[in-house]
Design brief:
alpha/beta; 429 residues; 14 helices; two-stranded antiparallel ribbon; twelve-stranded mixed beta sheet; Peroxisomal Thiolase, Chain A, domain 1
């Protein structure tokens, strides 16, 4: 039975229902929602040669950079200088999400609104800069605020301060699963009646020389030099790694009744979240994809859904030699015969891989796919790898009646995170 044809009442689940009423994105392919969605479903890649530093010493030279954000819209000169880039990305996306929702946060009880942020490198710019200053000029020039700006949890603290959020200020740091985990945690806070409104998502600014050197040494980034827009090729037999990206995505999550009472626009419902850890290897996935499968199983169980009720999966899809077939195997093993009708795509060739912010950005893709009833494509998939045997929606977007979409993230250390979103038919509420 399709999700929009039966009741998911609080009595059935003993949990309150959670919907997404606002989305804000700061992405290489668009810093407003319309531009972001347009380039995503049209498959217009934001990849290009790195402009933030010289890449002569590196084999990898292509990234997806945020080039069009108007900082002055969100910050005065003092804050532009003080805040780390990751934090600035997060604030901009969160503010846009609130604006998109039409919500006046001042009308919400202070104890019923909070923030959950996912990131991997929040504060790292400050740490790098402080270290350089210390080595070159000595201890007396170290800014005392560095100890605050440099710690990983500062992003959620600043977001709470900027937006006036009092119930929760939480930072998740679980690698590339960070922001998907943040969304799952935020939804849970509303489900258990600990909040009515949660701002949740992720931000990361990974494109810096020290991190680039590390990723380059790991050989997980593409080394293609021909055409940046075609460099990242998930599930293709010629794939050689991902394009690193930067940016942020945040949601306004709201208790269903609260949203209906104010006649809010609803993009999607958060149906469930699942996470797992393989505890197998520092960087590689288990060859049988056991972690991804367990995360999806948990998410579907908590959503009260069977695998054949899922229409679309936004895959982690990093275009690395090992990960793509493992992720495909995990999906095929869980969904069985229903995987033949399942649409799977990776939108990372368009956006770049935003690391800790990837889950939130790709969950935004899922929410928009449900809202617009269009499945975005996997671009640059010209010769499908024999080990990747699913429908990856190659080349062009596909109009399709989507009721349930799933976002899957995987991180270093064997972490996996899965968020399930459903279409809301307001005529049936």
């Amino acid at each position: 039975m399709r999700i929009n044809q039966h009741s998911r009442s609080p009595e059935l689940l003993n949990l309150r229902r959670v919907v997404i009423t606002g989305i804000g994105v700061v992405a290489p392919n668009g810093c407003d929602l319309n531009s972001f969605w347009s380039s995503t479903w049209k498959g217009i890649s934001a990849a290009g040669l790195v402009s933030q530093f010289d890449t002569d010493e590196f084999a990898s030279k292509i990234a997806a950079e945020v080039r069009t954000l108007n900082w002055d819209k969100y910050f005065d000169a003092k804050k532009i200088k003080r805040y780390d880039k990751t934090i600035k990305f997060g604030i901009a996306a969160a503010r846009d999400a609130v604006e998109d929702s039409g919500l006046d946060l001042l009308d919400v009880d202070p104890d019923r609104k909070g923030i959950v942020e996912g990131t991997t490198v929040s504060g790292l710019q400050t740490i790098f800069k402080t270290h350089e200053n210390y080595l070159s000029r000595g201890a007396t020039v170290v800014n005392p605020v560095s100890v605050v700006n440099g710690y990983c949890g500062e992003g959620s603290s600043i977001l709470a301060l900027e937006l006036g959020l009092h119930a929760h200020a939480i930072t998740y740091c679980s690698g590339c699963c960070s922001s998907n985990d943040a969304l799952g945690y935020a939804a849970q806070m509303i489900q258990i009646d600990d909040a009515d409104i949660m701002i949740a998502g992720g931000a990361d600014a990974n494109i810096s020389r020290p991190l680039w050197a590390s990723f380059n040494s790991l050989k997980v980034m593409t080394r293609s030099l021909d055409d940046p827009a075609r460099a990242m090729r998930p599930f293709d037999s010629r794939r050689d790694g991902f394009v690193l990206g930067e940016g942020a995505a945040f949601f306004v999550m709201e208790e269903l009744g609260h949203a209906l009472n104010r006649r809010a626009k609803i993009y999607a419902e958060v149906l469930g979240h699942g996470r797992s850890c393989e505890a197998f290897h520092l960087v590689d996935l288990h060859p049988d994809g056991i972690g991804a499968r367990r995360a999806m199983e948990k998410a579907l169980r908590r959503s009260r859904l069977m695998p054949d009720e899922v229409d679309y999966i936004n895959a982690h899809g990093t275009a690395t030699r090992h990960n793509d077939p493992v992720e495909s195997k995990a999906i095929a093993n869980l969904f069985g015969s229903s995987s033949r009708r399942l649409a799977v795509s990776s939108t990372k060739p368009v956006t770049g891989h935003l690391m800790g912010a990837a889950g939130a950005l790709e969950s935004a893709v899922c929410a928009l796919a449900l809202h617009h009833q269009v499945i975005p494509p996997t671009i640059n998939l010209d010769k499908q790898d024999d080990a990747c045997d699913l429908d990856y929606v190659p080349g062009e977007a596909r109009p399709y009646p989507i009721d349930v979409a799933l976002n899957l993230s995987a991180g270093f250390g064997g972490k996996n995170s899965c968020l399930v979103l459903g279409r809301v038919d307001k005529n049936r509420l």
